[in-house]
User: What shape does this take?
Amino acid sequence: MSQQLEIKELDQVVVRFSGDSGDGMQLAGNIFSTVSATVGNGISTFPDYPADIRAPQGSLTGVSGFQVHIGRGRVYTPGDLCDVLVAMNAAALKTQLAHAKPQATIIIDTDSFGERDLQKAEFSTSDYLAELGIDTDRVVACPMTQMVKACLKDSGMDNKAVLKCRNMFALGLVCWLFDRDLGLVAAFLREKFHKKPAIAESNIRVVQAGYDYGHNVHASVPAVYRIESAEKVPGRYMDITGNKATAYGLIAAAEKAGLRLYLGSYPITPATDILHELAKHKSLGVTTVQCEDEISACASSVGAAFAGALAATSTSGPGICLKSEAINLAVIDELPLVVIDVQRGGPSTGLPTKSEQTDLLQVLYGRNGESPMPVIAATSPTSCFDAAYAAAKMALEHLTPVVLLTDAYIANGSAAWLLPDIDKLPDIHPHYAPDSMKDSYTPYIRDPQTKARYWAVPGREGFTHILGGLEKDGATGAISTEPENHNLMDHLRAEKVARISVPDVAVEGDADDASLLIVGFGGTYGHLYTAMQELRSQGEKVALAHFMYINPLPANTAEVLRRYPKVVVAEQNLGQFAAYLRANIDGFVPYKFDQVKGQPFVVSELVANFKQIIHA
Assistant: This one.
């Protein structure tokens, strides 16, 4: 560390890496966030992928971003605006400057700001900094491309491979700026490229070169920064994305229940990583099948559930539309199935790489007939593990398909996760038919308390039965079109879901005397919590009730919503959760904050809006 520079300690910082979709910004951001989590910092990340597939190089629509918020303790959002912006080309600088604070440090590769680069990015002059109103004192201008070529001139790598290492030079500069241990970066790269050690060592050399550049020229900054870690709960941590946490939650549930895990899926953004992750774990009894379309993927999972597996199917909103017929087969057959919906922008193909909460009413009601299903919504990348585990437990113990809602923001985002002790996870008891029913079993005999039917796995002697899509007689299991029986079965299927016990919704903040209650569900938790805390720091009395369990709603929902003089429901759709709550809570008329931009909430916007409501 240079002796001429001051080392300043910070409580938190936000860094945004940006460049072409092929510039490796996601990898650079992931390494920086992983290294930060390893040393005990709290992290929250937001990968911001372009929607275009192979957009022209240097174009405005092809920019890929990765934002990471690092703090001494737990952080809840990836931050509204960044303190450091890495822009690998002219298009990245132009499109990503809006995500930077006015005083942010900007790191650019000057080799990617030539005349042709500026034309592609639609600059009108060659003085791009002045055109954007950027103070040159804020800019760390570095000829990264030239320096990477010089660093790897003896590596034997071709020019294309050399240029792919530019992201590591930028990473080295950022690691210098924040006093990061390059040994941790090297360990990450050696593990990632363990089958290509020469590639790993070349990348490590480039990271060191970027670090040395900052160290030697001081990179036009007055100080380097250090973010010490607050005291954390002892244990083993990892940087985990929501999709990976979802996969791990399913694996843990299968292990706890003593079942094999089956996932039938069809690739779709942003849910595909769940399939990719589970496919790695055959040694843990996981079976994955990539089917030819969405309905066959779901239908195969229904078959696996009938055969006695913990069955799941993963998709996004368009896939939920296509799976609906097969999902309804699981509803009428009353089979345990976890349906994972990683929500993205719609309608139709919409915004495939962006995040929304617009599938709520679809998963609640978007099937033919009376088709009740429990719905659980994960609230953060790490909570995806708990939500997946809870969905599997609910499906197996109540013999019902269960929807697990996540969204692109928390599915692709990551956070530091304390690995759980599987022995301390709640027990899972699949609702098997008892031996006493042998030779008298019919498929719709029900538990008198929960109304759940009993599960008989095919091949079990004395428990032969038939399930299918046609309505069955509740007593005999034979096909029935009798009106009273159908009416009874519809009511029983609804009552079974309604009787599922879920935890009360917690109220955080000024729970006893808030003048405003903020209400949300799913992946908006971090932003709403941060907005609540900001308002409280300004002297306002504010509370937050955030819902993980949507159907059935927690038993205390009505009491909580009626307790406060003003309630605002904030969601990333046009008011679906507010409408659902109004339909279920008599006389409930909330304020609404609706936003459908494909981007996470901005905390400052939430604070300003909520403050207006408080003082209206």
